[in-house]
Amino acid sequence: MPRRKRFWIPLVFAALALAALAVPVLAQQAGPGRLEGWAARKAAELEAALPQVRDRAMADSLEGKVAALRYQESLEATAAAVGAVPPEDPCALMPTPLPAAKADARPDGILEGPLAVMPGTSVEVHNQWTGQAGGIRLTAFAGLRLDLPGQGVVVVWEDNSAGGGEYLAPQATGALKIVAERQGRLELVDEQGSILFFDLPARQFLTPAEAQAKSALPTVIPQPTFTPAPQLCPVR
Length: 236
Fold this sequence. Notes:
By secondary structure, the chain is α+β, with helices and mostly antiparallel strands. The protein folds into two domains: 12-101, no CATH class; 109-213, no CATH class. 31% of the residues lie in helices and 26% in strands. The protein is built from five helices and nine strands. It has helices at residues 8-29, 32-35, 38-49, 56-84, 208-213; strands at 109-117, 123-133, 136-145, 151-158, 164-168, 177-182, 185-189, 195-199, 204-206. The strands form two sheets. It has a five-stranded antiparallel beta sheet with strand order 1-2-3-4-5, with no helix packed on it.
């Protein structure tokens, strides 16, 4: 009795070959562009905006934030690699060290300049202040939200980190301008000539009564205690 020809065997081998070819294609489609986190996207946005910045102080601040975001991106890449493949040498997956910050040429204090729109925002900057507040070096920008009629705003950036935020004035009384800084508290004036107070460490506006009550003891955010850890991997 003649044996039946096993036609299914070549079909199985053909299916396996097609699956092997499809794996690299699928991996390429789900490559780094799909896996980038918020740090990579934000850093790319700021890098794209840098060529449009004419103010040197603002450019320095943007470059510091880009460096911090790129460092965060390297941490995310390291975490993804560790979760995917157990490394033979854990030190090989250490994140790239944060580049040393270049000497800051910006003087402390209030910096006046021409009106300019902050890249990627609707904030028109009228002036800025740079200095230490609550143990952190900050840059605070005062101005106007162009998309909100008469709305003053303060934008705070923490140098060499991704920290910061945007804070609207309690009343829409026009653009704000910094006139003084005392013990971590900004004094600002709006278009109607009213004085406003902004507590930098607490990141909030104060009423005149609150500012007077806190004048003796400005708000200070407790800083974490640094405990040196043993060095497990050599510095590269």
